[in-house]
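Changelog note: in this version the structure field was regenerated for every chain. One regenerated record is shown below for reference.
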Amino acid sequence: MMMQLVVLSALVAVALAAPQQQSYTTPIPIIRLQNDASPDGTYQFSYETGNGIVAQEQGQLKNVGTQDEANSVVGSFSYTGPDSVQYSVQYTADDNGFLAQGVHLPTPPPIPAELAKALEAAARLPDPNDGGQYQPNLYGNNGR
């Protein structure tokens, strides 16, 4: 019984150690590629692949040489999903962050009118960090 267990274990080990069948995929060709970069920090690129992916992007440096220097990018890409639907995304990325838009992307619900009014009213309130000093210009009487 013990010998059969050893032989069975050895057979399982040999079977698991056998080289696995490699699955190769056909490389996707690049049909079109354009890439231009300038010394001033501007650039643009675009490409199209054999499986229908298309992408393009342009970028530039804003506020060059300052502490607020940042990239400003505009671009888009499209592809066919596994469900055979064509998906397209347009995006911007700058000092305000990344913003992507596409009909398939979720969007936040609208802000209810009551909440919008409350936010506007709160924005008009005086700064709570005013140092405790009376500020007549906030109350329209200029100190009189």
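Spot check on this record: The mean pLDDT is 87. DSSP finds two helices and six strands in the chain.
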